[in-house]
Amino acid sequence: xxxxxxxxxxxxxxxxxxxxxxxxxxxxxxxxxxxxxxxxxxxxxxxxxxxxxxxxxxxxxxxxxxxxxxxxxxxxxxxxxxxxxxxxxxxxxxxxxxxxxxxxxxxxxxxxxxxxxxxxxxxxxxxxxxxxxxxxxxxxxxxxxxx
Length: 147
Description:
Elements: H1 8-29, E1 36-37, E2 40-41, H2 43-50, H3 56-59, H4 61-77, H5 93-141
Antiparallel strand pairs: 1-2
């Protein structure tokens, strides 16, 4: 869809027309269900095939309404599963357990690193205190001290 020399209103109308003709074609072919991702139509693929930017779905109200109409029709017909109101996802318990185990391993690794850094920090503090004691002897007398 070329936008050169066209008004925003004309671009908007053409986008809706392209979308509607695309939907009709996919319904006729019976392939519209292939564009369903996560309980809704995949806007990126649709925009690519219709020849306009994906952002038009959010900025073009008539296009947004046409998309909502198609999705609602699909929900009623059973092609698209109805999204839950709370936006909750169905989660596999084994996936949660593996994620928890992964996070626990990461936490243990971080605790180990913290313990190592704390020990290193204490050692460096002792060395600094020793160096400061030597400097306290050298500076006032100006003599070299045997170590």
